[in-house]
Every structure is written in C-alpha cells, then in structure tokens.
Automatic annotation (TrEMBL):
GO terms for cellular component: extracellular space. The keyword Signal applies. One of its GO terms (molecular function) is odorant binding. This is Odorant binding protein C06. InterPro entries: PBP/GOBP, PBP_GOBP_sf. Belongs to the PBP/GOBP family. The lineage of its organism: Eukaryota, Metazoa, Ecdysozoa, Arthropoda, Hexapoda. Coiled coil: none annotated. GO terms for biological process: sensory perception of smell. CDD domains: PBP_GOBP. It is found in: Secreted. The keyword Signal applies. It comes from Tribolium castaneum (Red flour beetle). PANTHER family: GEO07291P1-RELATED (PTHR11857:SF43), ODORANT BINDING PROTEIN-RELATED (PTHR11857).
C-alpha cells in the first residue's frame, strides 16, 4: 500500500500512475513527457525505472526530473520549489499529514542546481514514504 503511495509522489515528478506500467501506460508516459525526454536525452527505460524506486545518480536523469518538475509547476526555472504546488500534487488519502509535511518542508530544500534539487527531492520523498511504511 505504501508503495502505491510512493508512486503517487512519483506522479509529481514523472507522471506514473501504476505499480507496473503496461505498454499503454508506458506510451502515455513517453508521450506526456516527450519534450523532457528529448531535451534531457535520458534513456526512457532509466526514466521509467524511477517508478520502481530506482533513481540513478545520472546527469541526464536529473535534467529530466527537473524538466518534469517545471512542466508540472512544482519548480521554477531557478530550481526553487513552489511549496503549495508540491503539496497539492502529493495530496493522497494514504499519505499522513506528518509525511506530507516532511516531504514539503524537508525534501524541497534547494541544492546547487535545479537538476540536483529535483533529483534529491525524488530520493528524499521515496525514503520518507518508505520510512513511514516501516513505522
């Protein structure tokens, strides 16, 4: 159940809505984020693996994540988060208020670049949700 919650948070970054993406869902993902895939030149399989919590420390993936965050309105061009937009995108009935506030306040810390900020946000969100799962 918590894994599905993590995927909801991934939606914020990657637009993925299911545990295992069907061919149709992969096509929707690739179509929706084609601009970000093209500009970042990230391998689409690497981008899709983020749905499984595999978040590689790779510059093209970081560029892709930043592009997605900007496209979804949760980060601006300077890399700053729009916390109200983050909160709205991660709202989910299975996400406790405490976890949501940790994600909004701790995971949105700005890093040296927008790309690094987006990457660290995704990792932090993932570990925050997985940590809640084990409590």
């Amino acid at each position: 159940m918590k894994y599905l919650l993590f995927l909801t948070v991934i939606t914020l970054t990657c637009g993925i809505f299911a545990f295992s993406l069907s061919n149709r869902e992969q096509a929707i993902f690739l179509s929706t984020y084609s601009t970000c895939l093209e500009t970042s030149k990230v391998d689409s399989e690497r981008a899709l693996r983020t749905a499984s919590g595999i978040i590689d420390d790779e510059p093209k993936l970081k560029e892709f994540l930043f592009c997605i965050n900007k496209q979804n309105g949760v980060q601006d061009d300077a890399g700053n988060f729009v916390k109200d937009a983050v909160r709205k995108r991660i709202e989910h009935p299975l996400l406790t208020d405490k976890t949501m506030e940790i994600i909004v306040n701790k995971c949105t810390r700005k890093r040296e670049t927008g790309e690094e900020t987006a990457y660290q946000f995704l990792k932090c969100s993932y570990f925050t949700i997985m940590n809640e799962k084990h409590q």
